[in-house]
């Protein structure tokens, strides 16, 4: 089939031709005519299938007639992360270059002033992350009752990030007679329920993932002891023909440490994660895309769904906490028919996580050894993993046979899904009051909490105690002590060389007036 058979206008077709696309992808073939007929669409498709163009191309044609009024955008696209929002905005610029549509990108981490000015001038296309949109709505900068086309992209990702209550609030402000296009990589029951609530007689489209990473990505795994991971990574970086690579860590604080370590060893490395200010995130990603940075040490939140053409390698410095994340991580390489290579560094404590991955991808990941490094072994019995105990997940003994998303969902605090709908709605109404800090902080916090902080404190303590009693941990400690290694890899104990200033300050003797003050406060 040709693009010209889908009913798109000549200007859009010209932009597609300029972009060099010769044929629509399956989702474009099915979705575009249907969107042009103003029907709702429920698309089960992930990034890499061409889904962005499947909604942006027809939207450009639909919005070509008509004019936007101040503060009343005519279409709204919700994206879970700032990077994805920026990527969609880029697509609009490319495909809409022969149109005069105005577009605003509302994402956290950037100043309100410019965004508000744009809204005041009137926008045809509004692309936003849920948090910033609600903020601007609450400030009265935006009205949503003229939205004609509404897109929810990456709905399952929104669920993972705890954005569903925000989305329900946003939808409640939209006009009933809108067109809704709803996309999700997977369709768990919660997402299906949302789709049923938001869509009217949608056309359901389900397309296969681009190509299973198993076919285009050569995978390998190195099992080493925890303290050898950086050395193992450096060895791989030196011996592999790495053009550019994502290096995934599970925890944000490890990202900075690893990036600095790589820089010290002469590698050209940057960092990307959800706690960084947006300007820095955008700049780093751009520098990576331009090839100024070769290695990007990153978190799942920062890198999922990001389309970097021709990524040669992915390194899992940590075994991902859910098997789904493994597939998403390695799927950053080997895209668009190109070959990619993915390596994972595992430690004996990661056995359970590794097994969950191999169950999901239905194949073993070939193990390789690294010259000069002692190869460790995955433990026979599925122990609780290091990552889960240290900061990742709850304390469940159930294997995660049903795949990461289901398991992850269960382990998250039952923030939105378990409460009945009415209760959630009531709580949503309360939300603005309890969240008095600026919205973007809340969003940043939401992004931060996605992976790391959702388990109850007791489980952390229990996991810590369990690990302290683990004989393998003692052996690991001894080995660490004995090791003659490069300084960079020595774990810092206590404050290391740094003595915090507060410990050097002499304690002020407590005066009678302090006691009187305390008493007055208590009274
Ligand atoms: P998406 O799934 O929207 O993230 O798109 C993935 C990649 O496919 C992007 O780099 C698009 O530029 C590219 N793409 C989208 N549609 C087509 C097409 N019809 N032909 C070739 N490439 C495409």
From TrEMBL:
PROSITE patterns: DEAD_ATP_HELICASE, HELICASE_ATP_BIND_1, HELICASE_CTER, Q_MOTIF. Keywords: ATP-binding, Helicase, Hydrolase, Nucleotide-binding. The keyword Hydrolase applies. Pfam families: DEAD, Helicase_C. A motif (Q motif) lies at residues 1-29. Residues 395-457, 464-477 have a biased composition (Basic and acidic residues). Belongs to the DEAD box helicase family. PANTHER family: ATP-DEPENDENT RNA HELICASE RHLE, ATP-DEPENDENT RNA HELICASE RHLE-RELATED. This is Superfamily II DNA/RNA helicase.
């Amino acid at each position: 089939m040709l693009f010209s058979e889908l009913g798109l206008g000549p200007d859009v077709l010209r932009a597609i031709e300029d972009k060099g696309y010769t044929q629509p992808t399956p989702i474009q073939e099915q979705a575009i005519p249907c969107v042009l007929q103003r029907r709702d669409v429920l698309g089960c498709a992930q990034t890499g299938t061409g889904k962005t163009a499947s909604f942006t191309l027809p939207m450009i044609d639909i919005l070509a007639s008509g004019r936007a009024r101040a503060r009343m955008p005519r279409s709204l696209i919700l994206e879970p992360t700032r990077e994805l929002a920026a990527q969609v905005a880029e697509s609009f610029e490319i495909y809409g270059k022969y149109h005069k549509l105005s577009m605003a990108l509302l994402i956290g981490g950037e100043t309100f002033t410019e965004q508000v000015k744009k809204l005041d001038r009137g926008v045809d296309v509004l692309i936003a992350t849920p948090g910033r949109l609600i903020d601007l709505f609450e400030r009265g900068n935006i009205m949503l009752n003229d939205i004609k086309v509404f897109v929810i992209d990456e709905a399952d990702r929104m669920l993972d990030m705890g954005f569903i209550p925000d989305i329900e609030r946003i939808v409640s402000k939209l006009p009933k007679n809108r067109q809704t296009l709803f996309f999700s990589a997977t369709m768990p029951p919660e997402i299906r329920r949302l789709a049923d609530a938001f869509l009217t007689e949608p056309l359901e489209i389900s397309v296969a993932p681009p190509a299973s990473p198993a076919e285009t990505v050569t995978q390998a795994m190195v099992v080493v002891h925890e303290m050898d991971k950086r050395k193992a990574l450096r060895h791989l970086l030196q011996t592999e023909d790495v053009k550019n690579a994502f290096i995934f860590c599970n925890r944000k604080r490890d990202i900075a440490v690893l990036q600095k370590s790589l820089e010290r060893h002469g590698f050209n490395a940057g960092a990307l994660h959800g706690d960084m200010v947006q300007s820095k995130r955008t700049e780093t990603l751009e520098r990576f895309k331009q090839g100024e940075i070769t290695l990007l040490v990153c978190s799942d939140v920062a890198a999922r769904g990001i389309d970097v053409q021709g990524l040669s390698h992915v390194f899992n410095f940590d075994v991902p906490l859910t098997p789904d994340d493994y597939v998403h991580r390695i799927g950053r390489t080997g895209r668009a028919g190109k070959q990619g290579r993915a390596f994972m560094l595992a430690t004996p404590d990661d056995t359970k996580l590794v097994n969950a991955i191999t169950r999901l991808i239905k194949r073993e990941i070939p193990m390789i050894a690294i010259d000069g490094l002692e190869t460790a072994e995955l433990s026979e019995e599925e122990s609780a993993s290091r990552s889960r105990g240290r900061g990742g997940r709850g304390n469940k003994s159930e294997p995660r046979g049903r795949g990461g998303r289901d398991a992850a969902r269960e382990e998250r605090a039952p923030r939105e899904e378990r409460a009945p709908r009415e209760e959630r709605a009531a709580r949503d109404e309360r939300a603005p009051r309890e969240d008095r800090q600026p919205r973007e902080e809340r969003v940043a916090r939401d992004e931060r909490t996605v992976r790391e902080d959702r388990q109850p404190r007791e489980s952390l303590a229990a996991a810590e105690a369990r690990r302290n009693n683990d004989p393998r941990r003692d052996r690991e400690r001894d080995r660490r002590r004995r090791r003659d290694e490069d300084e960079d890899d020595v774990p810092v104990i206590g404050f290391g060389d740094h003595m915090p200033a507060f410990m050097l300050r002499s304690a002020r003797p407590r005066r009678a007036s302090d006691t009187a003050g305390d008493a007055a406060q208590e009274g």
